[in-house]
Amino acid sequence: MKTLLVTGGAGFIGTNFVRLTLDKYPQYKVVVVDKLTYAANRDSLPEGIDFVEGDICDAELMDQLIRDCDIVVHFAAESHNDNSLANPRPFLDTNVIGTYTILEAVRRHHKRLHHISTDEVFGDLELDDPNRFTETTAYNPSSPYSSTKAASDHLVRAWIRSFGIQATISNCSNNYGPYQHIEKFIPRQITNILSGLPAKLYGTGEQVRDWIHVDDHNTAVHLILEKGTIGDTYIIGADNDHINNKQVIEMICEMMGGTFEHVADRPGHDMRYAMDSTKLRTKLGWKPQYTDSMREGLAQTIAWYRDNENWWRDQKDAIEKAYAARGH
Ligand code: NAD
Ligand code: TDX
């Protein structure tokens, strides 16, 4: 049995990855390391794993954990663009120094690493640009968040080339699904409507995100662990780059019987992300399970937030107050 060390496993995508692994990939023993920042929820994690509360910037701890595992799947990050505009420093610490710390331990102990990254490293596309991001698109990040993720990808590639570490990288588009922090777009709107508030659309809402259900992201990660070529990068996306933010909010409002209002736009707001996942599909045989332009995935996600109010209710007021202070 191989030991998977999952960094950031108490966050949104990491928690879903751990749950999927326990369900469908019994060949792995799972160890989670997580600092339990505001974005984490220890209670999201299932029984049957080892949990270590710790910081990926802690070199001694990471050395020990990586020595004792077979594979590292690196999700831990500061992940919210709006927060990175208000206070960039934690993004540099975790996303850059944290990734560096992991790379050095991976190098010392000759362990396999998969680094989780984002489409935002490529910057954005104009609405009428027919192109999509591919594995060879040049990096052009816009925000403190995306620039630190870009830096982390560069570090991983440099450690592959200079030190021959056994690593792969994936860049995925916007995820949605259960256990996502309610500061993020889709859960914020669902929990607003469940709280009797209008949904909140930044600016005109014409921005496009290439939404993917979190389970589709995580099945791709498992496939890369099983069959990916060491040193390679894989783009992950589910072909939803035809749906803009306004249409997503309208779908949620229609499904839940809610209303929405326009609020102040995000400074430097990226216009459009679009992913070309041909390599992952043709070389590794991946395909997403949620293929109906988000309707099934949104219905499942709405049902999850409705059924799990105790998971989010305590945080709702504070998050909306923070957004109100920023004009959102
Ligand atoms: P999240 O913010 O929900 O979770 C991040 C987790 O990392 C939290 O549990 C937090 O406590 C932990 N963490 C933060 N700093 C840490 C540190 N110094 N040491 C240890 N743990 C720390 O984020 P998410 O949405 O689950 O994103 C996970 C990864 O996927 C990130 O690398 C992100 O860049 C990437 N990604 C996210 C999306 C998306 O749409 N959410 C899309 C593509 C890629
Ligand atoms: O209340 C809102 N209203 C709104 O219109 C919020 C919170 C967001 N938005 C808009 C901004 C974006 O265009 O919705 C879109 C999605 O916003 P976020 O959920 O904040 O995601 P985004 O900034 O696109 O980044 C996400 O996808 C890429 C994740 O947070 C990143 O971690 C990931 O790398």
From TrEMBL:
Broad class of enzyme this protein falls into: lyase
Limits of the NAD(P)-binding domain: 5-291
Keyword NAD: yes
Organism superkingdom: Bacteria
Protein name: dTDP-glucose 4,6-dehydratase
Pfam (any one): GDP_Man_Dehyd
Cofactor: NAD(+)
EC number: 4.2.1.46
Assigned keywords, A-Z: Lyase, NAD
GO molecular function, one term: dTDP-glucose 4,6-dehydratase activity
Gene3D superfamilies membership: NAD(P)-binding Rossmann-like Domain, UDP-galactose 4-epimerase, domain 1
Species name: Corynebacterium aquilae DSM 44791
Biological processes per GO annotation: nucleotide-sugar metabolic process
Family in the record: Belongs to the NAD(P)-dependent epimerase/dehydratase family. dTDP-glucose dehydratase subfamily.
Keyword match Metal-binding: no
Catalytic activity as recorded in UniProt: dTDP-alpha-D-glucose = dTDP-4-dehydro-6-deoxy-alpha-D-glucose + H2O
